[in-house]
């Protein structure tokens, strides 16, 4: 074979190989590359969505924990006002003295007894039981003042039960003056 024929033959083989490579690229590699790019985009979109959702979940969990901590703290404070966490005879006596003065009564005598602690269910919370302080009060004043005193105890923040009351007329028959003997139970949490 002559050199020119070899040259033409090698150009034709090179051209056919180049055409074959282009056909393979267009038919096989380019669609696979497009599929890979689509899959990469889908993976990136899913990763972004996952990160956004994780971020949103973390924000919600943080918000819930903050609200729970705040609400639990506020709730515990409110419960402690109604049902103190310890015995609080001075506080209760101060409240009764203030209520009596506001109602127009004077306290003649005070007695305090502690009743047995009532246990609560183990899953009920932090308190192990409910303690009771029993106050025996003798109050002097008019009947209307005693009614006001009872209403004030009923609407007082502190949890209390009126156990008994006894009204005795004192003074002259025309006077509106009574000696009232009452027994009131106050409650507290025993830890």
Automatic annotation (TrEMBL):
The chain crosses the membrane at residues 7-26. It comes from the Bacteria. The keyword Transmembrane helix applies. Residues 36-70 form a coiled coil. This is Type 4 fimbrial biogenesis protein PilO. Keywords: Coiled coil, Membrane, Transmembrane, Transmembrane helix. InterPro entries: Transl_elong_EF1B/ribsomal_bS6. Gene3D superfamilies: 3.30.70.60. The keyword Coiled coil applies.
